[in-house]
Predict the 3D structure of the following.
Amino acid sequence: MTRCPECGAPARPLSCEELFHVVLALDHSRRPPWGPLHGVTVSCFLLQHPSRLPAHDRARPWATLHAYLDGGLDAATRFTEGMRRANSHRGAGLAEIVAGAPLGPPPTAFTVTIGDVAEDGTFPAAGFPERVEAWAAATVAAWRS
Ligand SMILES: [Zn+2]
């Protein structure tokens, strides 16, 4: 079976890239459950496909996933909005999270990938937040190991 060289998901019937475009279109509809999880979705995807992400840009998605896993969606949303408003208004805790952002060699396998979140390729609404949470946790765990 052909697999994605970065996250290890099956490359067929849809590649990670193609699945990412599907979920982005759902995100941009702004409808729940997809819209509110946009920042988390993008952060997971980038950290599982870090060739798209210069090493010095890993801090933001890394911190977004920590805000989400520690404080839930509200915390992640506040964090994303805060980053958008002004880079100078970073909270005290954020500097530490960012300092701890992973720089080492990227993992090449994750226990949950975009293929799992997509299920049949359509990212069904039922259970979507739970699948994204598992995706975020698997992403952080792999980078930390
Ligand atoms: Zn992939």
